[in-house]
Amino acid sequence: MLANELLHRLADLGASLRFFSRLPVPQLGRLDDTGALPSLPRAAAAVPLAGFLIALPASLIGLLVGSADLPDLLIGLIVVAALVVPTGALHEDGLADSADGLVGGTTVEKRLLIMKDSRIGTFGGLALILATSIRASAYGALFAHPAAGVFAVLGAGALSRLAMTALWAALPNARPDGLAARLGQPDQRAVALGVGLTVLLLSPLPALIGASATLLGIAFAGLTTLAFAAFVRDKIGGQTGDILGATQVLTEVAFLIGLLIGR
Length: 263
What we know:
Blueprint: H1 2-20, H2 40-43, H3 47-66, H4 72-87, H5 90-104, H6 108-116, H7 122-142, H8 146-170, H9 179-183, H10 188-202, H11 205-209, H12 211-236, H13 241-262
Helix pairs in contact: 1-3, 3-4, 3-8, 3-10, 4-7, 5-6, 5-7, 5-13, 7-8, 7-13, 8-10, 8-12, 8-13, 12-13
């Protein structure tokens, strides 16, 4: 029974890693179908760990370049690049599309139509510039203390994916025929398990950067998730894949700002 549950969780992790990144992921146990999409009602519990692992290469690259005599901003930009490459800018694309649609559209129909357009407009471009600048500046500052920088990258990867799944579970699908709708919505048990796993993954941070900074970062990320959920519910009535990608980037930004204010 326990072995079967572990195999299911490994399969969920494998499917989540393949869906949210381009990392080469081997079969994780006999129940892991390498061609299957994650079943979010259950697999949401593994998404924070997937985010942690996706961020692992960037954290190690940050540790390496942080030991060189480079400007903080350059270190931060390299870390952000190392975060974007494994995902193929999946979440950044969602941020840009969401900014264009939510701000540029005047009706629900127009907002959803703009979000489906692959071209980037003014609002999307500005959102990407601001989000990238803030993340790079924050990571550059945090890697002044290498261990703190490493676990800030890893913690942000896990917490931002938890925020994404929580918003996914809380809001209905704004586009019934979209990919987010086909994957299913995370159930409450999966989100609760994800919360516990995220707390465990964040546990080294208080000793490295301080309990108050860690709590402030978590609070900022949580408030950002709530505010963004209310905003998108008002604008389009629910979530889409683009909204979920935007949630990941926005909560990562909020978490990093909280860490820097509280340290």
